[in-house]
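Worked example 4.2. Below are the chains of a multi-component assembly; read each line carefully before continuing.
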Amino acid sequence: MAEPPQRSPHLRRDGAWVGASVPRREDPRLLAGRGRFVDDIVLPGMLHAQFVRSTEAHAEILSVDLSEVRAVPGVVAAYSAADLNLRGVTALLDRPPHEFVPTAMPVLAHDRARYVGEPVAIVVARDPYAVEDGVEAAIVEYAPLQPVVSDTAALAEGAPLVHAEAPRNTLVDVSLFATEGIDAIFDEAHTVVEVHTKTGRQNALPLETRGVVADWDDRDEQLRVQTCSQVPHQVRTVLARCVGLDEKQVRVIVPDMGGGFGQKCVVGREEIAAAAAALRLRRPVKWIEDRRDALTAAFLAREQRYAVRAAFSAEGEILALDADVVCDMGAYSCYPFTAGIEPLMASAEMPGVYKIPAYRVRGRAVTTNKAPTAPYRGVSRPQYVMVVERVFEKAARALGLDAVELRRRNVITVFPYKGVNDITYDPGSYLESLDLCEQTLRDEGWFSRRSDENRVIGIGFSCFSERTGYGSGAFAQRRMEVVPGFDISEIRMDLNGTVSVTTGTLSHGQSHETTMAQIVADRLGIPYDRVKIVQGDTDRITYGWGSFASRSITIGGSAVAAASVKLGDQLREIAAHLLEADVDSAELDGAGGVRVGDRSLSFAEIADVAYLKAHLLPKGVGPGLSATASFDVGGDGTFSNATHGVVVELDPGTGGIEILRYVCVEDCGVAIHPQVVEGQARGGIAQGIAGALFEQVTYDDAGQPLAPSFMEYKVPTAAEIPDVRIEHLETPCAFTESGAKGAGEGGTIGAPAAVLNAVNDALRHTGVELDDTPVPREAIFRALEKA
Amino acid sequence: MKPAAFTYHRARTTAGAVGLLTELGDDAKVIAGGQSLVAMMNFRLARPEHLVDITHVEGLAGIRRDGDSLRLGALTTHRAVEKADLGDFAVLSRAMRWVGHLPIRTRGTVGGSIAHADAAAEWCLLAVLLDARIRAEGPSGVREIRAVDFFRGPFTTALQPDELIVEVVFPRPAPRAALTEYADRRGDFALVAAAVDLDADRVVLGGVAPTPVLVERAGTAEEIAGALELRDEPGISAHYRRGLVRTLVQRARKEASRG
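Applying the procedure described above to all two chains together yields the following structure tokens:
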């Protein structure tokens, strides 16, 4: 049994385990290569699937001929949409037709192909080589249509329609806020600044690509689907509907997962098709997405265009923000979030950490002939934070003020704060994080290095908050037809006093087996290695919403804590009875037992009675030791916050960018496991830097993807990502059980803004400002060449 | 990303390899480190019917000083060159840091890189810069091809289908030579690469044409860049590429002058 650990002294503790960077429960298997990922699963008689994918960005499909495919040695079956006849996937918003147009995503394309890489047919063969031979033998006849490959092309007068039911290729068009009199504010303002920016299309790029192993189990009368999904229950629901089974006839199991970042929090069509093939063949079918398909045909993200104006007073007070956001969602709306995910997030949250009295926003989702999009870590926040932080940098220049000082004058400092966006912000450390971040870079001497005339060095900041733990209420406000939010936990104590607890959240790299166990350990007063976390199996877990939107510790962790408290009450009740004492005098002793005065019973002794000597239980108390609890966030959620500070150096000879220093001052409330929080921050920052400086999914004019491998899709490596100094602040959340706020996305959200501001600061003498990402090196070269 | 079916042949001697190549003709490809070929096969961009694996051929790997010249066996890995103490050929070791990443350098070979003939590949530049002789063995024996005559176009060389590179010979020391390059990420193929030999007054550029571009009796970096015929390409203009040439030639000369 593990001993309670030593903890970092600056972190708040509410028990022996929370707040300690204990060894991760996952590490022994993952570090030794003994994890079980989807591709590790091998079943007897298992077949391998791949997809015939559209070679056209936009075309009528005239015919799909798979006869040659079926003749390829090793091929067992090949199915087109007509062969499988599956229901399509449709995600809905409860909004009127002028705000939202529902569109169906077929499991396999039948009459129309809408992007290069869209699955048209599934081929199943005895081995992964033969299946690719089979895919090559397919003959699909297309009648090409003019493709729509950009947001501007999509919105152009007379543009071809990607979906006939969506005029102007617009799936979502919402104007959530429009403060009365905002135009007059702009007319009268001392200073108005504008930001026009376009962010590149990205791939969330989990290390483990998507994949599934599906088989029909006659004994359980179930389609068993082992898949790497962040949302197993949603996969079950959609899959059951598409293939025509009951919910009880589908079991979705998620083994170890190598990341998801949102790409796996929507339901993919390939896993449905593979499961349908397994059902039809009554043989196990495995589909593992290869990297080329992952780069070109998986769910993408992030491509947005902003036109933003902001009004300031002479004293540097922000008076109004006016924003137009267009998100290029690609060919389809994703389930369950819909194409509204990005424009709604941007519209609802853009005012961020600042006291902005007037706000107007229009958010649109347009559909194009590119691979569809899904939420990606941060969801719109990396972009709008970048835009708003550019606003502050530009305003500072226009007003002749220091940009950090300008932020200081405008950040929210009194909480709770009700924003112009109708959101109530719970307490955070906006000003404190800003001050500490700037001071840290100052103490390290970067401001004096910035003035070295022989070097081109810039410093940039971003100050932001992130709503985490969206409850049902907050999602309902978005008017999703399917409303995520709550989480349910079932806890059970077995003989010997060991505990297993379910969570509807799903760790796909975030260490929940450790952090959730820490929460339980503190509530029950037992070592964390006496706690087993059960997740990722729809047969073992009551309906859950999986892990996304930094919800796991805030909501799932609170459900786990609440269930633990209930179990603790049961233990106290039984112990009090056995010791012939009043239940109010019984308390958990923090050492795996219940104490009444100077007498105590261990959990093992109590469990012994609960299961093996039930006749000794108090009247009205049934046998066994278990409890169920749920948690939802009633209000607007809780806001994590951070300030990032970045130092970059530009190379005038090449346009090259080097990040010299990165400081992140973060506040996610009580950090359950600081090392895990830091890991989340570092990984997130790497993905944010990737978006600011490196990665972009590109297409040619015909909609053909130009980045099908890592040669073209420039994921930064360890050589490009700097060491990150992380400082912690801790403003506990008042309403989550452990005081924690979400920590999953902040790194990604803050990085693009800080990096872009640093690059522009380095260019301050050139008169050139760069607002698009990823930042083209040629633009830097040209700016410095002229200077 | 699985290759189409192929037949695997393992050669034990160069003569055996050449025999196989002669017998199998155009349908065969030589494989050594496989760092370019395997990726192309997985994308099914290359679909050889036969692979002739030469990694078990004795005596094809190794670095040998032979009077003034330095002889590199075709199977010598980039990593072996990087770690070697090559004295007045140290430019070769130093240049290896630009070749891909450590795993690529550990498996990739000198002969393979030259046979593959990517116009931005470090070995191709170095071979042209230092006037290397590429020794190829075919059915009628070994012939020597000057690097400058070897590279014919993008991924196209003077090598016949039945010939195998057995050795690359660098005839003269180059104590004042250097190679440098620029890419957005470390380990990528260079946007532009520049290699210089101050004593021979030669500059070789990569990434500016389908083959390495040799400039003899080179003038200033400005003049070299100005004389290039470049076109605007998606994402990179001729102007930017010219600027990179200017910068990289200057930097390579600076590094070379430090010896």
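Take a moment to check your reading of the output against the notes. Residues 63-170 of chain B form a domain with the Uridine Diphospho-n-acetylenolpyruvylglucosamine Reductase; domain 3 fold (CATH 3.30.465.10). Chain B touches chain A at residues 1-5, 39, 43-44, 101, 182, 184-189, 235-237, 239-240, 243-244, 246-248, 250-251 (CB under 8 Å).
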